[in-house]
Amino acid sequence: MKVLVLNVGSSSVKFELIDTSLEAIQNGTERKLGRGLVDKIGATTSTVKFQAPGKEAFKDELNIPDHAAAIKEVLTLLTDPETGAIKDVKEIEAVGHRVVHGGEYFTQSMLLDEDALEKIKECFELAPLHNPHNYRGIRLMQQALPDVPHVAVFDTSFHQTMPKYAFIYALPYDVYQKYKIRRYGFHGTSHRYMTYAIETRFAKRPRKEFKAITVHLGNGCSIAAVDGGRSIDTSMGFTPLEGLIMGTRCGDIDPAIILHLMAKEDQSVQEMNTLLNKFSGLKGISGLSNDMRELIAAMQEGNERATLAVKAFCYRVRKYIGAYHAALGGADYIAFAGGIGENSALVRELVLENLEKLGIILDRGKNNSVGAKGGEITADNSPIKAFVVPTDEELVIARDTVRAIAGVIG
Ligand code: AMP
Fold it and tell me: Fewer CB atoms near the end CB (10 Å): N or C, the chain?
């Protein structure tokens, strides 16, 4: 089954065509048929890219005024006679949509009907920057491909297994009842993929039998405690702002700082939101960049603030690993994914060094030489094994789409 995976943001549409089926999932014989991006929607010139394996990459600058034009462009890119992946849009047999917030409604991926779409709309206020675009993408693609099933895969649903004592904030209980303010957690597809990869590739043990700490370090960062394949805690909260230090987001801070700063600098809610989400994190501490590569380079040249940013970043991850080790009653595995987690041996080393007493014995040689396919980075005698796992969120979405259609999700 050819599944189109769609990730619609405020100014971009990311997509990938994946050939998969229940049998292919079982046998690992899925095929990636091409991936692309329509970026800077609404700007004077939008960037349009597509790459099918074995074919010439396509790239152009076009005028894409809105999401309707972007969705049309996705189908044009897929069917281009020279650089596309299919001859006709009729070859697309299903669409898997990434949806950021499923609130408390969605505990798993869902075949979309009007009722499910209504619930996604009800989650707009929980994710005002994401869900409206995800919803619009679904509606537009349903119009373009009305005869195929559409499935929603939520960033939050994997974490719906958290116990209430882990997701409740210590605020007056009625803010949870009135406004649904609680920890939701995000990056669920990546944490699920890491769990799956530990089970099938790295530890080769059924997920029911192990406890894992999954660490996603990209521009956004989150960490999860996974017990028997179920998320029992995660660092992102009501929004993706909580938890680890990120590229431009602050992660955990004392909430009183916000009140203090707003009073001191007479800042509006919007200004404070921008400060916390766009000017904090690695960028805020270093004053240099949100890009870990640039910060490591600056650190190696002796830049003090870059060094501080990298150290604070790694220290926070390390602290959460300790916390989740305790929350799980002892982890068996740790997985690293995301642009930083997969590519930076230095960050992994700063996070895991000197944790022998916790049962983690890093092997520096393995850590420095692990390749693009990932692998183990701990010593043979390490009680807890750590792995680098190249994450694949699109594959999770394509698989869930097939499973939801077959009614075998869960
Ligand atoms: P992502 O959001 O998953 O694409 O990750 C983006 C982050 O990964 C950025 O901070 C990049 O600087 C970082 N990154 C990518 N490659 C490397 C690398 N080789 N070393 C350190 N950080 C990297």
Answer: C
